[in-house]
Design brief:
single chain, 431 residues, alpha/beta, Rossmann fold, Four Helix Bundle (Hemerythrin (Met), subunit A), 3 domains, five-stranded parallel β-sheet, three-stranded mixed β-sheet, 10 strands, 52% helix, 9% strand, globular
């Protein structure tokens, strides 16, 4: 064997190792994907059973009407400072004329004793279990991406029906209405999952069976997607459509598709206004969850000397939005090709004594500043995203590119925050 062939083989081996060291993140829909479930029929059976069980409190027809209205509030009224459960509660319980604590024990009993009887409305899919097992064997990270419009117990039970019992879940994230702020088809739902995963740098693929709820919004964020096509409709999809899936087929076809697809081709591209806004809002949802879940004493603990604590990170994000990002974007909108001086904001952590500031108040101020920024971006016409500017460091740029820098900055600090949490509060789960 010549030296040239040895080197060539070594290069090929290193390339193979590098490709296989790239961790793939799979976001998996539940109903119609991992679990056979005609969702309209299931929801009809579920609401009828719950209304019957609650009939001693509320007339069944009115109960179902109120339940669906509150579910609509979750879908229509998504806000990064409120969980879906909070949106639901604000509509549901006042409509019934009861306080939540008055009905909660009865509803909990329903999910414990009656909800399991709905399993015959669904179908176990052994091929889905085989797919998950093979994906795990290959070292892929798996998360559930079901619409989080149910309480956690209802989602865990359906996962068990699919062959994944609660005591042995192979999924890193399982969204539910108690913990999530966004729902399908909002692209921010997928961004919220990725935030809790620490914004992984490698490839990400959404797998689902519904074009409008799973595929299109995931593609809108910039993710790759595999469409579980049960009725052959995918053959009519225009592959030139930017929201079309990269591939389609049955769940048992996913692994073979991944085998012939370069990981680089599956890396997300967060580079559209819709993706930017989804990430900006998901950042707020992430920090809202952090504030809800973490004990107060954790915020001021630095992981190591010279590393920022959580209070310093959130104060930094607050001030960069209020004092840099928002004024810059306003300047670009109001002026023609303005010059934007560079800002070194890291020293503010010491100069403004971030470590001594109240993290709760800082989070609230960040929420307000970021919502002002998002409101401004939502008001823009498509052509305004291309308004030019001259940056002291980046040179010629435009508004869209600068917003892209903001979202990248968000992702980096979420990674930093999760690393800090793992060190100062090991074992703590956010969702």
């Amino acid at each position: 064997m010549t030296l040239t062939s040895v080197v060539a083989n070594a290069i090929l081996s290193l390339r193979f190792l590098a490709e296989n060291l790239v961790t793939l993140n799979l976001l998996l829909d539940l109903d119609g994907t991992l679990l056979g479930n005609e969702i309209n029929g299931f929801v009809s059976g579920y609401t009828a059973a719950l209304a019957k069980f609650m009939a001693s409190y509320v007339e069944p027809g009115y109960f179902v009407q109120s339940l669906m209205k509150a579910t609509g509030a979750m879908i229509q009224g998504q806000r990064p400072e409120c969980t879906l459960e909070q949106n639901f509660d604000a509509v549901f319980y006042p409509a019934l004329g009861y306080a939540k604590e008055d009905l909660r024990p009865q509803i909990d009993t329903f999910y414990r004793e009656i909800f399991p009887s709905l399993q015959p409305l669904t179908e176990f899919r052994p091929e889905a279990v085989q797919f998950v097992e093979e994906a795990l064997r290959r070292g892929h990270r798996l998360s559930i991406a079901t619409n989080p419009l149910f309480p956690r117990t209802a989602i865990l039970q359906r996962l068990a029906w699919a062959g994944f019992p609660a005591g042995n879940l192979p999924f890193e994230i399982v969204p539910s209405f108690e913990t999530f702020h966004f729902a399908k088809p909002n692209p921010a739902f997928f961004a919220e999952i990725l935030a809790y995963l620490g914004w992984p740098d490698g490839p990400v693929v959404m797998v689902g069976n519904e074009m409008s709820l799973d595929i299109s919004p995931a593609r809108m964020l910039g993710l790759s997607a595999f469409w579980i096509d049960g009725d052959g409709a995918a053959s009519s999809v225009d592959s030139r459509d930017p929201l079309a899936p990269q591939a389609f087929g049955k769940i048992q076809d996913i692994i073979s598709w991944l085998d012939v697809t370069q990981p680089e081709a599956l890396k997300p591209g967060y580079n559209t206004p819709a993706a930017y806004i989804a990430i900006l809002e998901a950042t707020l949802a992430f920090w809202d969850t952090m504030v809800r879940c973490l004990p107060a004493g954790v915020y001021g603990q630095r992981p190591n000397d010279g590393e920022w604590c959580l209070s310093e990170i959130i104060c930094h994000l607050r001030d960069v939005d209020a004092d840099v990002n928002l004024p810059r974007l306003q300047k670009i909108i109001l002026e023609n090709n303005p010059f934007l001086p560079g800002k070194d904001t890291d020293p503010w952590a010491e100069e403004r004594h971030y470590i001594n500031q109240d993290c709760m108040q800082a989070a609230g101020a960040f929420m307000a500043a970021r919502q002002n920024l998002v409101t401004l971006l939502r008001s823009l016409k498509p052509e305004e995203w291309k308004r030019p500017a001259r940056h002291a460091i980046f040179g010629p740029t435009d508004l869209s590119e600068l917003v892209g820098f903001i979202t990248g900055h968000d992702r980096l600090h979420i990674q930093q925050a999760l690393q800090a949490v793992h060190r100062v509060a090991p074992g703590l789960s956010l969702v």
